[in-house]
Task: inverse folding
């Protein structure tokens, strides 16, 4: 290969890469990445309030967000470079879109992002064949298989890859596979493919920004978790309960879907503190909270557990009636009683609870009415010599 054929594209690349347009492209791309990171957090936070049947909506939300980001970049680059469709030079802007796709694979662990990444090269290459812009050949097929393989590996191992040297290996393979596919559509030399891949690799600033943004979001989410969860037991606290029960009332009071609330109280809890000390009392609270949380999860109830007072807990069951929630809670209570709690060496005790259960009623004017009723039923159970359950005012002993 003549030396001039190598130097020429390198010179063109330097002139293009170190230009004002490149700074604009980089700024826009980083801005879009920041927005996508915030969108990721926002989507997760929004749907976390609804613990049933939200997976499809979350996936659709991410597909739409990613599609909008790609279309926004395309429209912006067309405005910056009027002849982007006809200019081979315009394909440099594709690197910005590749960065978005690559970034989302690492940050957003969603199946729609995986499908979007896998489907886009197939769509672009297939469309080029239909439009007779290229012909099928084995090299393009191999490049596509390489790209799909890299995408799959990133999707399955993103957590450890992002903090390892292999991140740069996946970045190189991702870029070279994409540009090899586009080489079959647009006339490019091998040296141009490598230079455009190198340009993609030069966007390592995105990697470091990626790490910092992830760290910021994690710190914020940890702070929010600390504020929204009970420090001792690890379950949601009273502040979170107030927010959730008001949201539940707003949603479920306007439709025909059921929602049940359970309140339970550890029987004779004061005796644990008085006889064995507050450390034992704290351990009892943690024991009851952890067992209840684990059992609710194991039964796929999608219920939310809250500590609302000293030894008082509530559970919100969406899309279940009190008649459906009561047997679940009764089973958890039976498991709690069957097991014994070790107070100290050679001394195990049984922990019992009193329980109140109710549905959200059409007559409830506010979330407060809902809460006051379940609180009333709890006290009915406690007044029945404790270790009892009151379901809609119907009290039964659990002995």
Result:
């Amino acid at each position: 290969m003549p030396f001039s054929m190598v130097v020429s594209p390198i010179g063109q690349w330097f002139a293009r890469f170190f230009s004002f347009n490149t700074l604009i492209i980089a700024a826009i791309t980083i801005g879009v990445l920041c927005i996508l990171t915030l969108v990721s957090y926002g989507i997760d936070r929004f749907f976390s309030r609804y613990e049933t049947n939200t997976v499809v909506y979350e996936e659709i939300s991410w597909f739409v967000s990613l599609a909008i980001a790609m279309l926004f970049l395309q429209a912006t680059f067309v405005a910056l470079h009027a002849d982007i469709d006809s200019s081979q030079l315009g394909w440099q802007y594709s690197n910005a879109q590749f960065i978005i796709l690559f970034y989302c694979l690492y940050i957003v662990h969603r199946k729609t992002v995986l499908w979007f990444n896998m489907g886009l090269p197939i769509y672009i290459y297939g469309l080029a064949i239909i439009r007779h812009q290229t012909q099928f050949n084995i090299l393009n097929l191999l490049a596509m298989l390489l790209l799909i393989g890299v995408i799959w590996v990133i999707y399955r191992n993103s957590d450890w890859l992002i903090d390892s040297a292999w991140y740069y290996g996946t970045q190189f393979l991702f870029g070279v596979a994409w540009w090899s596919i586009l080489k079959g559509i647009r006339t490019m030399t091998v040296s141009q493919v490598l230079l455009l891949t190198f340009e993609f690799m030069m966007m390592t600033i995105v990697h470091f920004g990626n790490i910092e943004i992830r760290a910021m979001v994690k710190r914020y989410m940890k702070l929010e978790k600390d504020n929204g969860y009970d420090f001792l037991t690890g379950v949601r606290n009273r502040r979170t309960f107030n927010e959730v029960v008001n949201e539940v009332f707003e949603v479920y009071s306007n439709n025909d879907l059921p929602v049940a609330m359970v309140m339970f109280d550890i029987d004779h809890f004061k005796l644990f503190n008085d006889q064995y000390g507050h450390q034992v009392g704290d351990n009892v609270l943690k024991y009851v909270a952890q067992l209840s949380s684990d059992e609710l999860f194991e039964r796929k109830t999608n219920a939310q557990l809250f500590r609302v007072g000293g030894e008082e807990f509530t559970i919100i069951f969406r899309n279940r009636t009190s008649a459906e929630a009561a047997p679940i809670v009764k089973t958890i209570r039976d498991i709690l009683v069957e097991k014994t709690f070790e107070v100290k060496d050679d001394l195990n005790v049984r922990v019992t609870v009193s329980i109140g259960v109710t549905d959200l009623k059409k007559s409830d004017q506010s979330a407060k009415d809902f809460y006051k009723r379940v609180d009333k039923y709890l006290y009915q159970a406690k007044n029945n010599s404790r270790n009892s359950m009151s379901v809609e005012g119907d009290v039964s002993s659990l002995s």
